[in-house]
Amino acid sequence: MLAAALGFPLWARPGKIKITGLELVELQGHWQAPSNDHQYQVNPSHVYDDLRPKAPVTTGPREEAIRAIYLKVQTDAGIEGVHGPIDREAAIVVDQQLRSFVIGKDPLAGEALWDQMQRSNRHSRASHYMMAISAIDNAIWDIRGRYFETPVYRLLGGPTRQSVECYASMLGHSIEPDKARAKAIEFKGKGFRYQKWFIPYGPGSGPEGLLKNVELVRTLREAVGPTTELMFDAYSGWTLDYAIAWAKQVEQYRPRWIEEAFQPNKIEAFADLRRATSVPVASGEHFYSRWDVYEYLKAGAITVVQADPEWCGGLTEMQKICTIATLYDAVVIPHGHSIHAALHLVASQSPATCPLVEFLWIKMLSHYHFEKNAPKTVAGHLPLPEGQGFAVELDQAKIEKQTVLKW
Q: By C-alpha distance, which of 346, 355, 375, 354 is closest to 363?
C-alpha cells in the first residue's frame, strides 16, 4: 500500500502477479498486395514430377484478404502480454493443452514456467507443442517488459549495438537472370550487405536444373560484386551428392552459406557436406530446442544456427541456444518467420554470436499488417524499439473482423 501511495512503479511494489487468462484472437482485413513473381523454391516433394511446379505465376497489384492470430496473456495486475502473429497449429495447442496449465502461474518466474511447460507433456520436445510453448514464452517476455517498463532486449542483457543489421531474404523474387540481377542490385542500393536467395531446382529437375542453380549464383555475384554476401536456401530438397556437386561449382563465387540442403534428421549428410566444401553450412529453422542444436554442433554439421524463437521454445530457450553456439564458435542467425522476438534476442547478444537477423522482404510487407508500428528497415538495419516489452500495438482501423478462437 505504501509503495502504491508513494507512486512507485508496479515492479517496485511487493508481491507477485498471476496469469488470469489467455485469449487467442484472429484478426481479419484486407491489404493492397503489390506485383509478385511467386517464384517457388525446391522442397523435398519435388523429386516427384507431378508435385514439382512447372513455372512461377506472376500476379499484379491487387486487394487480398489477410488474417492473423495474436496471443494475449492477461494478469491480475492489469498487464496484458501480446505476441503474434502465431501459427494456427500452435494456437490450437495453446488453447487445448496449455491454457489451463499456465493460468495461475507467475509470469515473472519465466524460467520455472518454461521448464514446467516443457515437462508437462510427453510430446513437448518438438513440433506443434514446442511452437505453443514458444508463443506463451514470448508473450510472457512481453508481460515482463511491460511490468518493468522496458524493452525486452534490456531484460535479456541490454543492447549490444544501436541497430541490428538484417539480411534481405528474397523468397518469392524471380530467379530469371535479368530480373534477379536487377533485384540484387536494387537491394544492394537499399543498404543490404547480405542477401539470401532461394534455389528452385533439385535432383528431380536433372542436370539442367543443377546448371541453372549454379548460373543463379554466378549471375548474382556478378551483379553485386565482391562486397555483398550471398546466401542460398535449398529447403531440404537436395541429396548429398547433388549438394556437393553444386557446392564444388559455386565455391569460386564465395557463398556465405548453403541452408537446409537436407531434411533435418539427416545430421550425417550435413556433416559430410561441410567436410566436402568450403561453403559454410547452415540449418536450424526446424530445430526445436537446445538439444537439437547441440547434436548438430557436436557432429560438426553446421557453423550457422538458424533456430527460430517462434518455434524452438521462445526467447527463454534461444538464450540457451546462443550459449551452446559460443562453445563451438558458431553464429546464431534466427530464422525470420517473424521479427519481434528475433530482433530483441539479436540486439542483446554479442555481435560475434548473433550478427544478423533475417528479414523476409515480401512476407514482411503484410505480416504485421494489423500493427501500428510494424518493423521497417533503414539502410539494411532495424532500429532498436524503445517501447515496453515488444511494444506491439494493434491498429483497430485495419481490423475488419475480430474473433476469439476456441477449439
A: 375
What CATH code would you report for 2-44+64-150? 3.30.390.10
Average pLDDT of span 246-265: 98
**Longest CA–CA separation in the chain, Å:** 76
What share of the chain in percent tops pLDDT 90?
94
359: which strand partners? 168
DSSP 8-class letter at 186: H
Residue 21 has pLDDT above 90, yes or no: yes
Owner of C-alpha cell 481479419: 28
Position 308 confidence tier, pLDDT thresholds 50, 70, 90:
very high
CA–centroid distance for 312 within its chain: 10
Collapsing DSSP to helix, strand or coil, 206 comes out as helix
Per-residue pLDDT at 15 exceeds 70: no
In terms of Cβ atoms closer than 10 Å to its own Cβ (0-12, 13-18, 19+), residue 177 is: middle
State the architecture of 153-396 in CATH terms: Alpha-Beta Barrel (3.20)
Half-sphere exposure of 389 (CA within 13 A, CB side): 20
- Domain definitions of the chain by residue range: 2-44+64-150, 153-396
| Rounded distance between C-alpha atoms, residue 269 and residue 259, angstroms | 13
